[in-house]
Amino acid sequence: MLNHSDIISTIEMIDRQHLDVRTITMGINLLDCAGENIDKVADKIYDKICKKAQNLVKTGQDIETEFGIPIVNKRISVTPISLVGAVCDADRFVPLAVALDKAADACGVNFIGGFSALVHGGLTISDCKLISSIPEALAATNLVCSSVNVGSTRSGIDMDAVKMMGEVIKKTADLSDMGCAKLVVFANAVEDNPFMAGAFHGVGQHESQINVGVSGPGVVYSAIKNHPELPFDELAETIKKTAFKITRVGQMVAMEAAKRLDMPLGIVDLSLAPTPAKGDSVARILEAMGLETCGTHGTTAALAILNDAVKKGGSFASSHVGGLSGAFIPVSEDEGMIAAANKGTLTLDKLEAMTCVCSVGLDMIAVPDDTPASTISAIIADEAAIGMINNKTTAVRIIPAKNAKCGDMIDFGGLLGTAPVMPVHKESSEVFINRGGRIPAPIHSLKN
Amino acid sequence: MKAIVTVLGKDRKGIIAEVCLLLASYDNNILDISQTVMQDFFTMTMLVDTSDCTVSFDELSCSLNKKGEAMGLNIRIQREDLFSAMHRI
Fold first, then answer.
1. 10 Å Cβ neighbour count for A168?
2. Mean pLDDT score of chain A, rounded to an integer?
3. A58 Cβ contact partners less than 8 Å away, ≥ 6 residues apart
4. What is the C-alpha to C-alpha distance for residues A347 and A72, in angstroms, rounded to an integer?
5. Chain-centre distance of CA A427, in angstroms?
6. What is the CATH number of the domain that holds A363?
């Protein structure tokens, strides 16, 4: 029989340390729904999603019951809608977003991602239609998430798209309170990401597949919190072992879900995803390493250790690692980040530095209502440049908070949490952003 | 299918007897039991074969949860695979 104390340690992880599987995300190809009449395309999208994902939620719940492990979200990702809608005889794609929303609602999932466009090498007519539809689409729907990939290491950064996205984010904030929380701007976006708001089902993937995102900052925190004496190599070893256990649970759930839903297993995403709950914070892990407050000097190094050790432990535990796979640092979704930002120790500039060594980027950050679109575009450009040069995924999910000033708290509810409005630099970036064109792809040798 | 039953809570008389009776009433076979009592805190883990169980896993799980509530304990059943995945390579 299994060791008694091992069993009890697993129970403690679930009961006290917030161990869960963050999401089972079903990726669905929608390319075969394309057509000229947008209403017919919308109907085909609705029908296909409902057919493929009708048992997703029930299957997730069955696995939860049998294995006794919470599966927090059940989600759907679809082919980027700019591709599905490319031949549609319409100027805007809002009806397709509405079809996604209705299908997600009918299937009972938490979110559906893929109202997306990939424009890292340039904008097609269809990409422009999708991007201009985003503010209205996110205001007209509840469950739809949108993403736009504006740059990549191989293509450079499309600065026309970056400029557009600054304006789109401002308009999205004008039209709805929650819209910007469901909109991500990427560089080096991945095709198999199970996490929202940036999930979409890439064209290089299966017809449909199961992707799973694990979690477990609380488990890592508990493993290291009482060991300030450990040197860094032993600290990294402890995190690796913990990440291995967490990821094995994700791998097991992914295999079981894929088998029951009769579709291939895509990937397991190793990301440590925090929640606003106490004891489920990435920031508190960094503080447990010996930092007084997250954001102080040493934070980037601590995050680098955490992120690398999580990947090393997790990759041994899973047969197909993919997605974003790292440590997320969403400010509003992490109790420790919120506290550090409120204290003023964690600033936008420090967060940007942290994104050089962790998965994704400036995530769930509220900024003042009067932040100019060009400043938001410049923030996106900075993040995209970090991603492009370092050959990694970076992203910006930023929320201009209506009628709010620095220090005000914005409540997004549920897992999206609460964000303090953070100051941005007042000096203008407008002339820089107005240049347009494309930042050339970087050289791949002479790395320094 | 093999499953692990865990019982956590304040020690009292008859815990093992009541849990075993419930499991046996649904035709489950107990393969192994391990328990510890630290101060007053009781923890027990059981390996159970549910192949012949006369009710669904969901119903068995609900019955154990209810029994736990009635006894002031935390009782749950989970498939053994979860623990094997985490603790065995």
1. 26
2. 95
3. none
4. 30
5. 29
6. 3.20.70.20
| B78 closest CB neighbour out of A6, A67, A248 | A67
Q: How many domains does chain A have?
A: 2
Q: What is the pLDDT of residues A24-67, one digit of tens each?
A: 999 999 999 999 999 999 999 999 999 999 999 999 999 999 99
Domain assignment of residue A96, yes or no = yes
CB contact under 8 A, A7 and B79: no
Closest approach of chain A CAs to the CA of B12, in angstroms? 19
Q: Collect all residues with Cβ–Cβ distance below 8 Å to A344 and sequence separation of at least 6.
A: none
Q: Which amino acid appears at position A408 of this protein?
A: D
Residues linked to residue A183 through DSSP beta bridges, in sequence order: A146
Q: What percentage of chain A has pLDDT greater than the value 70? A: 100
Sign of the torsion formed by the C-alpha atoms of A355, A360, A361 and A363: negative
Q: What is the ipTM of this complex?
A: 0.92
pTM for the predicted model, two decimal places: 0.94
Token pair 């897992």 is at which residue? A415
Question: What CATH number has the domain bearing residue B29?
Answer: 3.30.70.260
Residue of A nearest to B89 (CA): A317
Whether residue A384 contacts residue A364, with contact meaning beta carbons closer than 8 Å, is answered with no
Give all strands (DSSP E) within A249-393, no chain letters: 265-269, 362-368
In whole angstroms, how far apart are CA A97 and each of A143, A179, A200, B9? 9, 13, 13, 50
Domain that includes residue A57, residue range: 24-187
How distant is the Cα of A248 from the closest Cα of chain B, in angstroms?
6
